[in-house]
Design a protein that fits this description.
Elements (H helix, E strand, L loop, with lengths): L1 E9 L2 E9 L5 E5 L5 E7 L5 E3 L20 E2 L5 E2 L3 E4 L2 E4 L8 E2 L12 E6 L3 E10 L10 E10 L3 E10 L3 E2 L3 E2 L2 E2 L13 E4 L3 E5 L5 E7 L11 E2 L9 H5 L5 E5 L6 E6 L5 E7 L3 E5 L21 E6 L14 E2 L5 E11 L2
Antiparallel strand pairs: 1-2, 2-3, 3-4, 4-5, 6-16, 7-10, 8-9, 11-12, 12-13, 13-14, 14-28, 15-27, 17-26, 18-21, 18-23, 19-20, 19-22, 22-25, 23-24, 24-28, 25-26
Bound molecules: alpha-L-fucopyranose (FUC).
The site of alpha-L-fucopyranose has 9 residues, from strand 25 and strand 26.
Length: 348
Amino acid sequence: MEVKQTPLTIEGQAWTEYTLVNDHGSSVTFLDFGGIITSINVPDRNQQIENVVIGYRNYADYLDNPNYFGALIGRVAGRIENARFKLNDKIYTLPANENTHHLHGGPIGLHSVIWQVELIETATHVGAILYHTSVDGEAGYPGTIKYKVTYTLTNDNAFTIDYEAFSDQDTVLTLTNHSYFNLSGDLKDTILGHYVKMNASQFVELDEELIPTGRILPVANTVFDFTKGRPLADGVNSGDPQNIYAKNGYDHFFIFDQQNEGKIIVTDPISGRVLTVTTDQPGVVMYTSNGLDDTLTLKERNSAKYLGVCLETQSSPASLEHAGFPSIYLKATEPYRKTTTFTFTTQS
Ligand code: FUC
């Protein structure tokens, strides 16, 4: 196992690219800028190692990354309705960056800061610890927060992201990673033929602006029922207003049935690649890249609608507005700790 490092100069900024490589030649490449995962190379059923995430061909394109490709997201992943929230009887106003709403931490979120990186090399894994501090009032949020995010890759092709954060004031926080997975390999095909199975019998209803209405719906008898597994294509022409609001696909928060045991299995029957996501987060936003068009230059080809699926394990910002949602409130000095593991295997 090894970690490779390449210094880069991107539009006058000094960045570093890191590649974690395991003994089987699988690898994860990321940047200190936004902690952005630029490629994940894993074998298909014929041992062909190919990239399974969307990444830009030109790294300068990450400076403005409206789709948040590969990035760490915070302070709050998802949408905060009308860019404001109440905490301890005080109203906090945030910058709006999508209509009147605040999306993915706002314009100066964790996706666009340069993280301090410390490498880890042991007998069982390779990895890196990413550190950053956001100061009180930054992007409108209360509390100075110290972040420690750890990326590790093992010889079992398991890539883990451990999130730790510590705030000196009561605040709101939910962190995630915004990688767009595509198990076909080198973006050969869309993700519509991928099968997804997850233990979520409820999902969060959205309005036309993708803001949670406050209702939690059962997945039963809808194309949101992934409990037994179904292809992502089912969300394209379902006629369900929920899919139509999401531009003919999925862009929804699913709530896991077992606390601390979220599990999602994504299978590509053509390449034989299987991605298993396990997490102690209460839910996941599954987004089928319904908003992507064909204008972006990616590493292997141009972008396209449905070219990736994001599995944004997180808690729900709707908890700021409605009772009964997985909470994003974080108490002063109470450590925030969450883990998500992405394990790549194959099936015959
Ligand atoms: C996801 C979605 C959004 C958005 C963004 C880039 O998290 O919820 O709708 O388009 O990513």
